[in-house]
Structures are given as C-alpha cells and as structure tokens.
Amino acid sequence: MFLCLKKSPQPNLTKVSSIENIMSDFYKTLKGVSQGIYKEKMSKFIAIAQPAQSADEAKALIKQISNKYHDARHCCWAYMIGSQRDEYLSSDNGEPSGTAGKPILGQINSFGLTNVVIAVVRYFGGIKLGTSGLIVAYREAARTAIEAGEILECHEQATLSFSFPYLAMNDVMKLVKNGDLKVLDQQFDNVCSMTVETDADKMPSLRERLTKIDGVTGVD
User: CA 20 to 30 Å from 219, out of 14, 123, 130, 153?
Assistant: First the structure.
C-alpha cells in the first residue's frame, strides 16, 4: 500500500545508468494510463504506459495490449516493480537484441519510476531503421508516453493487526487518533481487534507505543 502525491512528469537530473536497489520508503509511479506516439520513416510506434502493482499484473496488461494491437509487427515492453525497484524485465519481441526492451526500461529508469509497465507496439512502414534508429524510436516512444501521464510520489504504507482488552479501548483510540493512523478494520467485544495502516518508516515506533498499553497483543 502506498500514499501518493502528485509530481510533475519530469525525469531525474541524474540519469540512472544501471538498475540499482534504492533503499527508500518513497518511490515514483504513474497515476494512470498514458500514451505516446513516435513516427520515423513510415514506421509508427505507439507506447502505452500504466501502473502495475506486480509482475503478474504487468504481464497481464502487456497481453491485453498485444491482443488489442494484434496486427502490429512487434509489441516490445518493460516493467519495473517494487518500492526498491528490484524486480524488472524487458522484451525486444523479435526486434534485434537490445534495441527495444532495454531503451524502454531505460526511460523508466530515467524518470525514476517503479510499479509501472510500458509496452510499445510498432507498425512497420517498410523502411528499416537500423540498430541506432530502433533504439531512438523505442526510447522516444516510451518517453512521450511517460510525459503524457501524471507522475505520483508515493510513500510506502504498512499495516498492523493487533488485539486488546475492552478496558484498553481509550488508550488504543487515543494512540490511533494522535498517531494519525488509518483504521482498516476494527471489532469491539470483550477482546477487541484492529488493523491500522501508517507510513512504513513509522511502524517501529507504533509497535513500541502499543506494547506500552496493558493487554495489547500481536505487535511483536
């Protein structure tokens, strides 16, 4: 789960030359679906960029796009998953090795995005572009799709479920209110239970405060 704020669709000033694990509770992704078009020597490249929360979801979206543009010569793609940007994959889908999937993934890196998938379909115009021409075409198509979208800066969220006696209700509710926690589920009886959500980096502090309330269990 992530809390997101709007960001302007501008790439990082320092281009990422390789994929690295970024240990941070923050990450950037796209708000929704966006599209870009690039044309070169009668070939048309249509890029579709959209958010995806898992590799399986990204692959399902790629399949949908491939089916929609079934008459295109190629459907090349790349995705990046996870707040640490450590799960990624790309495909040239029949184009010369390194000319399509890698440039698409490069744009995802340049904008510092994750939890996103970009597919670029190509309608061949009859004139070969060569290796360098293909790299430029797939890179620019991906870039225009990203720039057409809305980038969000997100803060990773974490959830915690715990139980407590009814007599501890006031202390628990005071903590929830003062801690600005989001209550996802709650049940009140002789033994009560609650599931809350907060920023991931605040979770250790929350656990510590809960352990100080008599009778609270499930926070270890």
Answer: 153
Amino acid identity of residue 96, one-letter, is P
The CA-atom distances, in angstroms, between 72 and each of 38, 89, 94, 118 are 14, 21, 12, 16
Structure tokens at 116: 């996103």
**What's the DSSP call for residue 14?**
S
pTM greater than 0.70:
yes
Q: Note the pLDDT tens digit of each residue in 95-123.
A: 999 999 999 999 999 999 999 999 999 99
Relative to beta strand 191-199, strand 182-187 is antiparallel
Spatial distance between the Cα atoms of 118 and 59, rounded to a whole number of angstroms = 10
pLDDT at 180: 82
> Which bin fits 164, alpha (ψ -120 to 50), beta or left (φ > 0)?
beta
* Residues sharing a CB contact under 8 Å with residue 55, sequence separation 6 or more, in sequence order: 79, 81, 87, 89
Cα of 108 vs its chain's centroid, Å? 10
CB-side neighbour CA atoms (13 Å) of 78: 26
Domains and CATH numbers, the chain: 2-149 (3.30.230.30), 157-211 (3.30.70.240)
Is 90 exceeded by the pLDDT of residue 48?
yes
Q: Is the CB of residue 213 less than 8 Å from the CB of residue 17? A: no
